Description:
Blueprint: H1 3-53, E1 54-56, E2 59-69, E3 81-95, E4 100-108, E5 118-119, E6 129-142, E7 145-155, E8 171-183, E9 187-197, E10 209-220, E11 226-237, E12 254-255, E13 258-259, E14 264-276, E15 279-290, E16 301-310, E17 319-328, E18 349-361, E19 364-375, E20 382-393
Antiparallel strand pairs: 1-3, 2-3, 2-20, 3-4, 3-5, 4-6, 6-7, 7-8, 8-9, 9-10, 10-11, 11-14, 12-13, 14-15, 15-16, 16-17, 17-18, 18-19, 19-20
Amino acid sequence: MNRKNFFAIGLLTIAALSVSAPVKAEMSEQELRLRALEEKLETKSKGLEWIDRFTFKNDLRLRHESNYNDKNASGAAVQDQHRERFRLRLGGEYNFDKSLKVGIRLASGSEDPISTNQTLTNSFGKKAFNIDSAFANYLYSLGELKTSWTGGKFDTPFFKTMPLVWDSDLTMEGLAESFTLPVGSSTTLFAVFGQMAIAESSSVRHDPYLAGYQGGVEQKMGSLGKLKVGVAYFDYISVKGKTIANNPSAGNTLSGTSLVTDYDILNVNGKWTFDGFGIPVEVMGEYANNTADNVPTNEDEAYAFGVGVGKKIKEFGDWYASYQYRVLEKDGALDVFTDSDFHGGGANSKGSVLGLKFGLRKGVELNATYFITEANAGAEVSRDRLQLDAIFHF
């Protein structure tokens, strides 16, 4: 190779390198941008996946409430009360997969375990918000046997037909296990167990807690509808001699503010659902008996029955009408967890509840409820209550 050819090849090589260098640099920059874009899309995808796994369960209830009081236990006249209230609940469930989820719900109101109502008062003051539930739930199937394991703070896990023993706003704290087993094509057996903490104090040797056991059967009866029955035993442990918040004067027998008796509640619930001339009908009954020692026989029971006509409110025109009659003797149930709306809450009460629900559109319903109650024993105290609700689910 002569010198001219050598220099020519060298010049061509340098020229090629000078042209390819910025192209390579440009390609490298494009690759970096593409990688950054992929990472950003991956991050957004994870965010969307999180949203897809989360189910929102929110509702707002606006309420007008009127309380018509006759007199108190001392015989003194009590002024009627009219107030505006609301309930706001925000939360939902995050599903890791089909078997594992966690749930959380925040609710308005105070720390009262049986009410999430917030009264409009206090000169436009700010309103409280509390943790109403926070739990983890795991589902496991072993053949036909389906099991559910829950821990934390959660809705009452036991089958109930009416709020005779448990208020509908109550969320329990502890552990719960439930089991369902189909037997044939028409019968399903179920069992529910609960270990609940009621209070904890370093100054008390034995903290009060609840051990609950329930078993039952759900039976399909063809054209006759469906029947579900549950039998439960609620063993309150270490409650005798203690003050159980939130209301130490709600009907149970007390010494000062301390409970005089134990509460070992035998509880039976039953519901029969069927179609009556094309309209869903449900007939309900509940019975409770405090089997603890030294409870007077005329103060140890509670019972209720009711009927409902119509269907669950889903859209415009759906309606549901109901009637219930309840009797709750002085120590038939632990009064701090019973229905807060019935006779002002607590025990030693009886009376009727009339209800009507109507759907305005999907997610919106109107409710009207009227309570006609009086004391079951002792001084004649009557209390009527009217509640008018607008409820928004979102």
